[in-house]
Design brief:
This protein has 7 helices and 7 strands, in the order ααααβαβαβββαββ. By secondary structure, the chain is of the alpha/beta class. α5 links the parallel β1 and β2. It is globular and about 60 Å long. The N and C termini lie far apart (56 Å).
Length: 247
């Protein structure tokens, strides 16, 4: 039968091989996120023994992915050189120890990076000048501990900036839609309010990454040499230190 004038000949159509779908095609076929497909592919390739446990229903895919990535994450941390010099303005986003609370029945999900213990966080060397300001990011679950961290680092707490997101994520007891950043200083460093609010509203970003509006706020309020500790990427006008900063 001759093809319809409005239908291109079959020979001119791209042929889709559904026997070996791409990751994007698989995501569409099975109605799961591309991120889940990527996780499954990584586990199958790098930790087949964990993949078998996932297939058997013994562990969750997110848990298997984190275990498979752990050696790589440890190597990245060990090979990351500590920040050099001293800074007046420091943003710190520590890898809080969610992994130590994985048996908590109210906890949902697994963090996709290597965490630190509270003692390890308190023992961090924060390269500050005598007069400096610190912005310490903390999730709801570790808000109490964050004040003890500030004390261990020798900073005086002043106020809390709260990030209100457009998405209800993981959390304990209640779904997390907020994250906090404690503002603290050392010595005589001062900032002027400049009509800035303690509420920062911005859309959710990828896991652990902070919104650009936060960094613009720090630029407006805080003069001086700047450092991001545990940064997710490089940024202009500041030093960035972290295992993922050069990814």
């Amino acid at each position: 039968m001759r093809p319809s004038p409005t239908t291109p000949p079959t020979a001119n159509r791209p042929i889709e091989d559904t026997r070996h779908p791409t990751q994007t095609q698989a995501s569409q076929l099975f109605n799961v996120s591309r991120w889940k497909i990527d996780q499954a592919s990584y586990v199958e390739t790098h930790a087949p023994e964990l993949a078998q446990k996932v297939h058997a229903g013994d562990i969750a895919l997110s848990n298997a992915y984190r275990q498979a990535k752990a050696p790589v994450e440890r190597q990245k941390i060990e090979s990351t050189k500590p920040p050099q010099g001293t800074y007046q303005v420091i943003v710190v986003d520590p890898p809080w120890p969610f992994s130590s609370r994985r048996e908590d029945p109210t906890r949902q999900g697994m963090i996709p990076y290597q965490s630190m213990t509270l003692d390890e966080i308190k023992a961090l060397a924060i390269p500050t000048t005598p007069d400096s300001i610190l912005w310490l990011w903390v999730p709801n679950a570790f808000l109490h501990d964050a004040f003890h961290v500030l004390e261990a680092w020798g900073f005086t707490y002043h106020t809390t900036l709260t990030w209100g997101k457009d998405y209800v994520g993981l959390g304990d007891w209640l779904g997390g839609q907020t994250e906090h950043c404690l503002l603290a200083t050392k010595g005589t460093y001062r900032v002027f309010r400049n009509n800035e609010s303690t509420l920062l509203t911005a859309p959710k970003t990828r896991h652990s990454e902070k919104p650009e509006t936060f960094y613009r706020l720090v630029e407006r309020l805080c003069p001086g040499e700047k450092l991001d500790m545990f940064a997710r990427k490089q940024r202009e006008n500041r030093a960035c230190w972290g295992a993922e900063a050069n990814d």
